[in-house]
Specification:
Blueprint lengths: L1 E8 L8 E4 L4 E5 L6 H11 L29 E9 L14 E9 L6 E4 L2 E3 L1 H8 L11 E2 L3 H6 L3 H12 L2 H258 L5 H72 L4 H6 L12 E3 L4 H8 L6 E2 L20 E2 L22 E3 L5 H7 L3 E3 L3 H7 L8 E3 L5 E2 L4 E2 L10 H191 L4 H79 L4 H6 L7 H18 L6 H63 L3 E6 L9 E6 L13 H18 L4 E5 L7 H14 L4 E5 L3 H4 L4 E6 L7 E6 H11 L1
Parallel strand pairs: 3-20, 3-21, 8-19, 10-11, 13-14, 19-20
Antiparallel strand pairs: 1-2, 1-4, 4-5, 5-6, 6-7, 9-12, 14-15, 15-16, 17-18, 21-22
Helix pairs in contact: 4-15, 5-11, 5-12, 5-14, 5-15, 5-19, 6-11, 11-14, 15-16
């Protein structure tokens, strides 16, 4: 595979489409510095897959685009194409059968990704790299040796040098395959770990699901009983709320009638108040009018006083101004006399300057007359010189053209003969394409495209469903998190209430005494009783510290504690199993004992004893109304805990630690039931989230399967397309090439005859033109001397004229300066005269104004204004006295109105408070009705289940007991049976996956071992051969000495490579002691040693001979010529010795700034033409 041509467009300085032919084995690229030679190397490196802008001498990849220069605009696209001759079939893979291979890369400025093409088929960067794997070619392979690479090779680290050896050994493809295999092995291990983790979780889950299924049935039974009991509680509380609401409505009507009476009194008082306010407004307006008149008289008096003061100030100001004007008039007269004296001297200076101007202008006229004569003599000699020079150039150009025609005709004849011979050889080797195979491929491609369309449709449908499943998973996970937070909050509140109750039961002040007497763990009374909701404060107010009472087996046990009483208040009692007689209501008031429920029947005696003759009332007003009828020892208590007896009223306040103990106990029971429900809800949400996660996993697995299937079919489709394209192109190329060869052979015969005739005619014309050139050169030498003398005379005359003109300009400047000064002085005289006249006029005006000022009239007007102000001040005082009397009446009436309003406010507050209670009762009734409706229970059906004497507090205890039983079940999984079956199926599926993954891991590990074994063998063979070649190549380049490669480790796959080299006569221990030229030759010897093992199709050398002297350059050139028999060499050089070995020279020029162009010369053809011309 050899390089035929490089095509560039828009790449760096090659803005125009540029074609660089590479016809021979040794091609030199020459040109001045900065013309773009190294851009050719960058272009080849870029098209071979280079992705780092730094290695292309840029900051970003956009720097490879032409950015504009001079009149050129920046381009938006860059492309580089390499065309290879693959007639020997050295290219690997599916491209081996192509006779010609084109590798192309394109980049756009608009941000599109770079594109790669092989034979105009869009491919990946990896496909381009695969063609050149193991050939020594690549973006950073040893076949591209640029300016800085020599030092990098010789000074590279051992690990970096091993990369060049791997490329020479052709193991790059093994490295790539091993990397892919390791990646698949790593993915397989990760998948196996995930599968094993899921299997372990499933095993644990299966154990729990078995027991959860048994608990679910019991849970449903308890939930049914809970719902029925809860419905009864809601119905009873709804009936209680309806009764409370009716009582509050009656109270509201009574208070409204009382409020209307007081409101009528308020309206009468407000009417009288408005009449008084109207009279007060009229009196106030009279005061304001009198006050305005007084202010007006006062302002008139002040105005006359200000005018009188202003007149006096103006008289003083005018006298000062008149004095200043007299001084200014005297100063202007003195300045005018001084200015007129200097005007006479300036007029004399101007007359002398005018005389000098006339003398200088005469001198300029004389010198100007001499200049045309000198110019005419100069033009005559210059014209004769130019004519002779043009004639000589034309003769030499004509002779050069004829010589070029003669050489070109000979070169053309030789080229035509070689071209005809190559065409006949090519025609004999052309092979037709396999047409039946092409048709078969097209049928397979059509079938595969149908399969791809079906797979893509299935994958699209699955991708549309996947976001919905993922959203469902996120929603269920969020709901699970909210439920968990709610459960944690409820548990925290429950724990805080329990801790508070326990601390209250222990009692800080009496704890030690109770422990010492064996009562530390005794239960307290409040722990064994319950009271209906809303009456907790009433019971606490009545029992107070007795709520914390301790039950004893016998009350006699307390006798021994009288001698050593406890440090705090403690109540003990003896439980009584007998039930006390029931207490009848008093005046419609229920006994408080009926609202209390005891968990233990033995507590009934003590509670009934303490609550004997304690009745409850709805409000304090009713209690005060019936207090006188109370029997001795009876008390009334409100919901708020206020106690009323026959002679006392005690207001309740939270003054002990026991306050709220019953409410907290009820809340603890309610929290217990609510937490059980919250836990069940959380478990259900967890299971729903797990099911959603399984659904998402299954959909993702299905998508992965579809993607893998599509990828396999696309690769197959791509391979079939490439093969079909290759066969079609081959058939078309063979046909077209046969026709072109026949046409070109006919054209070559005609061109050969014309070239022979032109060569003979050119030989005669060259001899005639040589004589003409010699004659013209003699005439030109004589004309040159005359031209130079005339030029010197003309220069002297121009200098004399310039001096005369400068003298005239100086004299004119002096004359103009005097004229300007005279004009300025005349203007100053005029300005001073006008200013003096204006000052005289102002002085006369001030005298007239001063005479017009008189104080007599203003003094008389001021006295009249003072008398009017005194009269209006007396009227204002009378109006103010009347207004003060009216304000006293208005204040008394307003205080009366305020007293009535104060009576109204308590009534409104009582009405609002009663309405709030009515609304609270209504809301409670509606809430309980809504709860019944939400539970699907009808009032009449639930009422049939009510029993006489049934109270909400007792039912609430039953609910607490059922909740405790539900709580005792723990977390309940309602879908346990279904999840159990699903988990077993999933366990079987994961077991099969685990076995498959273990088998895949074993296969991949075996493949890696096989790749390592083959790579190790090939690397060792390559190292031995390259080391031998290096040992032979080094003495060839240096004329002696020795060199070798040394491994830095025992394992060649990981070991680095060190270079040891000793030129003739030196015993250096390291290559870093060598000179720059010796390092360069050593690096070249190493690179060429790799070439001998695995010659790359072509090699690029960028000024690698720069550090070499002529002697070493000669040996380097001889070595390159010998190696060019196996590989093409493109080299950039400024060294003439290196240029001489080139078969073709490519010149890079930059005639237009920033734009590179190519000029090609075939050295062998040029030599033949030169020899023929000689």
């Amino acid at each position: 595979m050899r390089l035929k041509q490089i095509n560039l467009a828009g790449f760096k300085s090659f803005v125009d489409p540029t074609h660089i032919p590479v016809p021979g084995q040794l091609v030199g690229i020459v040109g001045p510095n900065g013309c773009g030679k190294s851009n050719v190397i960058d272009a080849v490196r870029w098209v071979l897959g280079e992705t780092s802008a730094k290695h292309l001498r840029g900051d970003t990849m956009q720097d490879i685009l032409f950015n504009g220069a001079g009149q050129r605009q920046p381009v938006n696209r860059a492309s580089v194409e390499l065309i290879f001759d693959n007639s020997l079939g050295r290219a690997g893979g599916q491209w081996a059968s192509y006779a010609e291979i084109s590798v192309k890369r394109m980049l756009a400025r608009d941000g599109e990704a770079t594109s790669y093409y092989i034979n105009n088929v869009h491919v990946r960067r990896r496909d381009v790299a695969d063609i050149f794997l193991g050939t020594g070619l690549g973006s950073r392979a040893y076949a591209i040796v640029e300016q800085g690479m020599i030092s990098r090779v010789i000074e590279a680290k051992p690990e970096e040098l091993r990369v060049f050896l791997e490329e020479a050994a052709g193991v790059s493809k093994y490295r790539e395959r091993r990397r892919e295999t390791e990646q698949r092995l790593s993915d397989t291990r990760e998948n196996l770990l995930r599968v094993d983790d899921v299997r372990r979780e499933l095993e644990q889950q299966l154990e729990h699901l078995q027991s959860q299924a048994e608990v679910a049935t019991r849970y449903h039974e308890l939930q049914g009983r809970l719902r029925a009991t809860q419905n009864l509680v809601w119905l009873l509380r709804k009936q209680e709320a309806a009764a409370q609401r009716a009582r509050h409505l009656r109270e509201i009507e009574r208070l409204a009638l009382e409020l209307e009476g007081e409101t009528a009194r308020l309206r009468e008082t407000e009417k009288r108040l408005e009449e008084l306010r109207a009279q007060h407004y009229r009196d106030s307006d009279a005061v304001h009018a009198a006050q305005g008149a007084f202010y007006e008289a006062n302002a008139e008096t002040a105005r006359f006083e200000q005018e009188l003061a202003y007149l006096r100030e103006n008289r003083q100001r005018l006298e000062r101004e008149m004095s200043d004007l007299r001084a200014q008039i005297e100063s202007g007269r003195e300045q005018l006399a001084t200015t007129q004296a200097s005007l006479s001297g300036l007029r004399n200076d101007r007359d002398r300057a005018a005389e000098s101007v006339r003398a200088c202008e005469e001198a300029v006229r004389v010198e100007s007359g001499k200049l045309p004569v000198a110019e005419e003599a100069f033009r005559a000699t210059r014209n004769r010189y130019d004519e002779l020079q043009r004639a000589l150039a034309l003769a030499e150009q004509a002779m050069g053209v004829e010589r070029t025609k003669h050489a070109h005709a000979g070169q053309m004849a030789e080229q035509l003969a070689q071209r005809a011979r190559r065409l006949r050889e090519e025609s004999a080797t052309l092979q037709p394409a396999d047409v039946p195979r092409l048709e078969q491929l097209r049928m397979e491609i059509a079938a595969l495209e149908g399969q791809l369309s079906e797979s893509r449709a299935a994958m699209g449908a699955e991708e549309e469903r996947l976001p919905g499943a993922e959203q469902a998973l996120r929603e269920r996970a969020a709901a699970q998190e909210v439920a968990g937070q709610r459960l944690a909050g409820m548990e925290a509140q429950l724990q805080a209430l329990i801790q508070l109750q326990e601390r209250l039961a222990r009692g800080a002040s009496t704890r030690d005494w109770l422990e010492a007497n064996g009562l530390g763990a005794a239960a307290r009374l409040w722990q064994g009783i319950r009271i209906e909701s809303g009456w907790e404060d009433a019971l606490e107010a009545v029992l107070r510290e007795r709520l914390n009472a301790i039950a004893l087996e016998r009350i006699d046990q307390a006798g021994r504690w009288f001698d050593e009483p406890p440090p705090g208040r403690i109540t003990v009692f003896a439980p009584a199993s007998e039930r006390q007689a029931s207490v009848t209501p008093f005046a419609g008031c229920e006994p408080l004992h009926r609202y209390v429920t005891c968990n233990d029947a033995r507590l009934e005696g003590a509670v009934a004893d303490w609550l004997q003759q304690v009745y409850v009332i709805a409000n304090a007003g009713d209690g005060l109304a019936i207090r006188e009828r109370l029997p001795a020892g009876a008390i009334l208590v409100t919901r708020e805990g206020h106690i009323i007896t026959r002679h006392t009223v005690s207001f309740h306040a939270p003054d002990t630690e026991l306050h709220g103990v019953l409410t907290r106990q009820r809340e603890i029971e309610q929290f217990g039931g609510a937490i059980g429900g919250a836990r069940a809800e959380l478990d259900a949400l967890r299971e729903a989230a797990a099911a959603a996660e399984r659904d998402v996993g299954q959909r993702r697995a299905r998508l992965d399967e579809l993607r893998d299937a599509i990828s396999d079919r696309q690769q197959r489709h791509h391979a079939l397309q490439l093969e079909a394209l290759r066969l079609a192109e081959l058939d078309q190329r063979v046909t077209q090439r046969t026709e072109r060869i026949a046409a070109e052979l006919a054209e070559i015969e005609a061109q050969s005859a014309a070239a022979a005739a032109g060569r003979q005619a050119a030989e005669g014309r060259v001899a005639e033109l040589q004589a003409e050139v010699d004659h013209q050169r003699g005439q030109l030498a004589l004309s040159t001397d005359l031209y130079r003398r005339a030029e010197h005379v003309l220069e002297l005359q121009r200098m004399a004229l310039q001096e005369a003109r400068e003298s005239a300009q100086r004299a004119v400047f002096i004359e103009q300066s005097c004229d300007n000064k005279i004009i300025e002085i005349n203007n100053s005289v005029k300005v001073i005269s006008e200013a003096s006249l204006h000052l005289d006029q102002r002085l006369e005006s001030r005298r007239t104004e001063l005479a017009s000022y008189d104080e007599t009239l203003l003094q008389r007007q001021l006295q009249q204004a003072l008398a009017a102000r005194s009269e209006r001040e007396r009227a204002l005082a009378g109006a103010r006295d009347t207004l003060e009397g009216m304000e006293g009446s208005l204040k008394a009436t307003d205080e009366e109105r305020h007293a009535v309003e104060q009576k109204l406010e308590p009534l409104r507050e009582r009405i609002a408070e009663t309405r709030l209670k009515e609304q609270e009762a209504r809301l409670n009734e509606e809430q309980h009705a809504q709860q019944l409706a939400e539970a699907g229970a009808r009032d009449d059906e639930v009422a049939q289940q009510l029993e006489k004497g049934m109270r909400p507090s007792a039912l609430q205890g039953e609910i607490a007991r059922l909740n405790e039983e539900v709580k005792g079940l723990g977390a309940v999984n309602l879908a346990a049976l279904e999840e159990l079956e699903s988990a077993r199926n999933r366990k079987e599926y994961l077991d099969a996956q685990s076995r498959d993954l273990n088998e895949a891991m074993a296969t991949l590990e075996d493949a890696i071992r096989r790749i390592d074994r083959e790579t190790r063998e090939r690397l060792q063979q390559t190292f031995d051969v390259v080391n031998r070649h290096f040992g032979e190549m080094f003495p060839t380049l240096f004329g002696g000495g020795n060199a070798r490669l040394v491994l830095t480790g025992e394992e060649i796959l990981d070991a680095g490579i060190q270079v040891t080299a000793q030129p003739p006569g030196k015993k250096n221990t390291t290559i870093h002691l060598l000179s720059g030229g010796e390092k360069a030759l050593t690096a070249l010897a190493l690179v060429f040693s790799m070439f001998q093992l695995n010659p790359a199709p072509f090699c690029l050398l960028d000024e690698v001979d720069a550090p070499l002297d002529d002697y070493n350059t000669g040996r380097f050139c001889e070595l390159v010529k010998n190696m060019s028999r196996q590989s093409q060499f493109l080299f950039i050089s400024h060294n003439k010795i290196t240029m001489e070995i080139a078969e073709q020279l490519l010149g890079i020029t930059m005639q237009e700034g920033g734009v590179s162009r190519v000029v090609a010369v075939d050295i062998e053809e040029a030599m033949k033409l030169t020899e023929a011309a000689a």
